[in-house]
UniProtKB/TrEMBL annotation:
<keyword id="KW-1133">Transmembrane helix</keyword>
<feature type="transmembrane region" description="Helical">
    <location>
        <begin position="187"/>
        <end position="210"/>
    </location>
</feature>
<feature type="transmembrane region" description="Helical">
    <location>
        <begin position="20"/>
        <end position="49"/>
    </location>
</feature>
<dbReference type="InterPro" id="IPR035906">
    <property type="entry name" value="MetI-like_sf"/>
</dbReference>
<dbReference type="InterPro" id="IPR010065">
    <property type="entry name" value="AA_ABC_transptr_permease_3TM"/>
</dbReference>
<keyword id="KW-0812">Transmembrane</keyword>
<dbReference type="Pfam" id="PF00528">
    <property type="entry name" value="BPD_transp_1"/>
</dbReference>
<dbReference type="InterPro" id="IPR000515">
    <property type="entry name" value="MetI-like"/>
</dbReference>
<keyword id="KW-0029">Amino-acid transport</keyword>
<comment type="subunit">
    <text>The complex is composed of two ATP-binding proteins (GltL), two transmembrane proteins (GltJ and GltK) and a solute-binding protein (GltI).</text>
</comment>
<dbReference type="GO" id="GO:0006865">
    <property type="term" value="P:amino acid transport"/>
</dbReference>
<keyword id="KW-0813">Transport</keyword>
<feature type="transmembrane region" description="Helical">
    <location>
        <begin position="61"/>
        <end position="82"/>
    </location>
</feature>
<keyword id="KW-1003">Cell membrane</keyword>
<dbReference type="GO" id="GO:0022857">
    <property type="term" value="F:transmembrane transporter activity"/>
</dbReference>
<comment type="similarity">
    <text>Belongs to the binding-protein-dependent transport system permease family. HisMQ subfamily.</text>
</comment>
<dbReference type="InterPro" id="IPR043429">
    <property type="entry name" value="ArtM/GltK/GlnP/TcyL/YhdX-like"/>
</dbReference>
Length: 241
């Protein structure tokens, strides 16, 4: 027979340092994974857009593999498979590597889609006034692409905050793993899972507020502007020259 709901246990673990530390681990793991994934993802996106097959083909293969297989399987291969090849990683290193590699595959498509959404005429106009390919990308393409990239990137961060819980299978001491440890010790299953759910909800809610502000920042130039952003940006670059 169950003992019913334990209110004192619920409130006792709502601000428990052990749980709070797990939530902090979830936060830094998310930030590190999204930062690393964005760097790798941008490189993959540019490779996918390259006219050279020796760049585009490997990038396409990478994205195909990591988007087509579960993160859980990837983590297990990294944590238990790589040591058989002589490369032994710690739990933290394995979790970070798995999250970064997986997230990069998705962010690469986000960045590629944002870049391709900018009309080719914008790039051609930039090249016509003497911009290099790098300058065109930096001053013309990316400022416009960011308006489309930011919302999807924000959703990826929101999802990653919850996806980090998968790293508990390799004993990563994040929020879910620490919740499970306490459940095994205290036998308060529902109470502790709800505590964990509250922390996840709190983190995703705070990020939602931040994301909306970022979206407004990148979208305000499109609200009242009568001229394309690319033209305004081009004028700034010409003045800097």
């Amino acid at each position: 027979m169950g003992q019913g709901w334990n209110w004192s246990g619920f409130f006792g673990y709502l601000f428990n340092p052990y749980i709070l530390s797990g939530a902090f681990t979830t936060l830094w793991l998310t930030l590190a994974a999204i930062a690393g994934g964005l760097v790798v993802g941008c490189a993959l996106a540019l490779a996918r857009l390259s006219r050279h097959d020796w760049l585009a083909a490997p990038a396409h293969f990478y994205i195909w593999v990591f988007r087509g297989t579960p993160l859980l399987v990837q983590l297990i291969i990294i944590y238990t498979g790589l040591p058989q090849l002589g490369l032994k990683l710690s739990v933290v290193e394995s979790a970070l590597l798995g999250l970064i590699l997986n997230e990069a595959a998705y962010l690469a498509e986000v960045v590629r889609g944002g870049i391709q959404s900018v009309p080719a005429g914008q790039t051609n106009a930039a090249r016509a006034v003497g911009f290099s390919s790098a300058q065109s990308m930096r001053y013309i393409v990316m400022p416009q692409a960011m308006r489309l990239i930011i919302p999807t990137l924000g959703n990826s961060i929101n999802g990653l905050l919850k996806t980090t819980s998968i790293t508990s299978v390799i004993s990563m001491e994040e929020l879910l793993r620490r919740t499970q440890v306490l459940i095994q010790e205290k036998f308060m299953v529902l109470e502790l899972f709800i505590v964990a759910a509250i922390y996840y909800l709190l983190m995703t809610t705070v990020w939602d507020v931040i994301q909306r502000r970022i979206e407004r920042h990148y979208g305000r130039a499109y609200g009242n502007a009568s001229e394309p952003v690319a033209a305004a940006t081009a004028d700034v670059v010409l003045e800097q020259r």
